[in-house]
Specification:
The structure is a single chain. This protein is of the alpha/beta class and 388 residues long. The chain folds into 2 domains: 184 residues, Rossmann fold (3-Layer(aba) Sandwich), CATH 3.40.50.2000; 189 residues, Rossmann fold (3-Layer(aba) Sandwich), CATH 3.40.50.2000. Helix content is 39%, strand content 17%. Strands 3-2-1-4-5-6-7 form a 7-stranded parallel sheet, covered by helices on one side. Helix 2 packs across helix 16, helix 9 packs across helix 14 and helix 12 crosses helix 15. The longest helix is centred in the C-terminal third of the chain and has 19 residues.
Length: 388
């Protein structure tokens, strides 16, 4: 889409008294995460429209990791403000009265909205279908004009929240494509990380918190090493919050693999970790649609293990580059028996180079099928067009 003429920029339209709309995004936090990536892309989707943009967030006032990218992707971002409480949100809404409010898990705005007076067009982004997640919005369900869902759970929304329309927008955004590394590149990456070139390396790359349960990745690797009767190395790359760090400390201290477990902490470029892996293991208690980290692994030809939570099972074809651990609940960690059963299932494939090569090819094909030519930005603009 071409850039707007200068006389159509919001700043000039405001000077001229023109009709510039104001869109406010009320989000939980601005530290790195999958939901925050969706926020960035929603804001960026409006960059070529004559709208003012405000971003209000609820938690972690000192972690403004994505603020610079928000402003870079949309020059009309005027305000990025930590505004946690309901009273502050109420005052802000009364003063600003935006033309559109886009909420994603900002409790202050959810509590304030019913008391503002008059109707503010409101769209809510829902990442999870679990009842406990949906009921957070029961207090404002009659004030919401549209729900944005990240995978098909319209029936759950209708059951727990109401009949307002749903827009299905997968959180798949244009990214620079990745490809499997060459054997030489893989060896160099492993050497740079301190991993043996010919080792079997399993692990996880991405944000680590209580929900991601990275300690279960260690437990899975223990089962796999015992079944294969060969050394398994574990790579855990990414920022660890306090809960994840504590659980990993305990799990690693008790693990027979502890001398072969590498924790990198936050990396400027996680692609180094993805490219060093033979198998990507996700053991989350719950998820939204399909974590971008799974795509990052698959498109590099790294087969994945993942629980059947959120929308993962709607995309991942079990046994074709990815392997599902059936998990009916969204609160409990994976059980030891589930981890052991998956290790038993994978061991014969890992021992057969041709079979594992087929899985690597299938992984890359799966990533291409999921993300090829998907334009989430256009779908978001379409979802909110009537208010802009």
């Amino acid at each position: 889409m071409p850039f707007l003429p200068v006389n159509e920029w919001p700043i000039f339209q405001r000077w001229l008294g023109g009709p510039v709309k104001h869109v406010a995004f009320a989000h939980r936090k601005l530290s790195f995460g999958g939901g925050e990536r969706v926020l960035i892309e929603q804001v960026a989707a409006l960059a070529q429209l004559p709208v003012r943009v405000s971003v209000l967030f609820n938690k972690e006032p000192d972690k403004r990791d994505i603020e610079a990218e928000l402003k870079a992707r949309n020059p009309h971002v005027e305000t990025v403000l930590h505004l946690p409480g309901a009273f502050g949100a109420w005052r802000w809404l009364r003063r600003e009265r935006p033309d559109l409010l886009v909420i994603c898990n900002h409790k202050g705005f959810q509590r304030a909205l019913p008391w503002v007076g008059g109707h503010i067009p409101t769209v809510v982004t829902l990442h999870e279908h679990y009842e406990r997640h949906l009921r957070k919005y029961k207090g404002i369900r009659r004030l919401v004009d549209r729900w944005i869902i990240t995978w098909p759970f319209e029936a759950m929304v209708a059951q727990h929240l109401g009949p307002q329309p749903c827009s299905l927008i997968h959180p798949l955004y244009p990214r620079s494509g990745a490809h499997p590394p060459s054997p030489e590149q893989k060896r160099a990456l492993r050497e740079g990380l301190g991993l043996p070139a010919d080792a079997l390396v399993v692990g996880y790359a991405g944000q680590m918190d209580r929900r991601k349960d990275p300690a279960s990745v260690v437990r899975f690797a223990e089962h796999l090493e015992r079944i294969l009767a060969r050394p398994v190395h574990v790579l855990l790359a990414g920022r660890e919050d306090r809960h994840a760090a504590q659980s990993l400390d305990s799990a690693i201290a008790a693990s027979p693999l502890r001398s072969r477990i590498l924790r990198t902490g936050a990396l400027d470029d996680l692609s180094r970790a993805f490219n060093a892996l033979d198998l990507y293991v996700m053991t989350s208690r719950n998820e939204g649609y399909f974590p971008i980290a799974l795509l990052e692994a698959l498109e590099r030809g790294v087969p994945v293990v993942a629980p059947s939570v959120g929308g993962i099972a709607t995309e991942l074809v079990d046994g074709e580059g990815g392997f599902l651990i059936r998990k009916p609940d969204d609160r409990q960690p994976l059980k030891a028996a589930q981890l052991e059963a998956m290790a038993l299932r994978l061991a014969p494939l890992l021992q057969d180079p041709m079979a594992w090569q087929s899985q690597k090819v299938a992984a890359e094909a799966l990533a291409a099928r999921i993300s090829r030519d998907y334009d989430a930005a256009s779908l978001f603009r379409e979802a909110v067009a009537e208010w802009l």
